[in-house]
Amino acid sequence: MATTRKKNDDRDQTFSPDRRAARLADEIERKGKADDLLMEDEFADELGVTRQRVRVLRVQKIGPPFIQPFPEVIRYRRGDAVKWLRVRAPIACR
């Protein structure tokens, strides 16, 4: 009996819960108002990931909501980023 391998597109496309999510949400929340807009680079720095990872999350539609005032400009509302992280925090960390 042959074993079939999962194709890349069959993998779970959700962002896996991160142990740092609750702590990151607290840190991001303390740094400003919920309506503040973060540039893509700032958001990546806050998460401790690369700008490319943030883009992947956005393209796969598993990242936080974003605002696109111009085709080449992406902004993330601080409050939306905090909510997104809190949902992804492991249950034990909430």
Features:
alpha+beta; 4 helices; disordered N terminus
Task: Please explain how this structure is put together.
- The chain is of the alpha+beta class and 94 residues long.
- It has a domain at 37-94.
- 40% of the residues lie in helices and 13% in strands.
- It has four helices and three strands; from the N terminus they run H-E-H-H-E-E-H.
- It has helices at residues 21-30, 40-47, 51-59, 78-88, and strands at 37-39, 67-70, 73-77.
- The protein has a three-stranded antiparallel β-sheet with strand order 1-3-2.
- A hairpin with a 2-residue loop joins strand 2 and strand 3 (73-77).
- Helix 1 (21-30) packs antiparallel against helix 4 and helix 2 packs across helix 3.
- The longest helix has 11 residues, at 78-88.
- It is globular, with a radius of gyration of 15 Å.
- The relative contact order is 0.23.
Layout of helices and strands, plus pairs?
Blueprint: H1 21-30, E1 37-39, H2 40-47, H3 51-59, E2 67-70, E3 73-77, H4 78-88
Antiparallel strand pairs: 1-3, 2-3
Helix pairs in contact: 1-4, 2-3
What portion of residues is helical?
A: 40-55%
Mean pLDDT: 83
As a whole number of angstroms, the C-alpha radius of gyration is: 15 Å
Structural class, by secondary structure, is alpha+beta
Distance between the termini: 45 Å
Strands in their spatial order, largest beta sheet:
1-3-2
What gross morphology would you assign? globular
Count every helix, treating DSSP H or I runs of 4 or more residues as helices.
Answer: 4
The strand count comes to: 3
Order of helices and strands: HEHHEEH
Low-confidence segments, given as residue ranges, are: 1-17
Give the amount of beta strand, in percent.
5-15%
* Main sheet overview: 3 strands, antiparallel
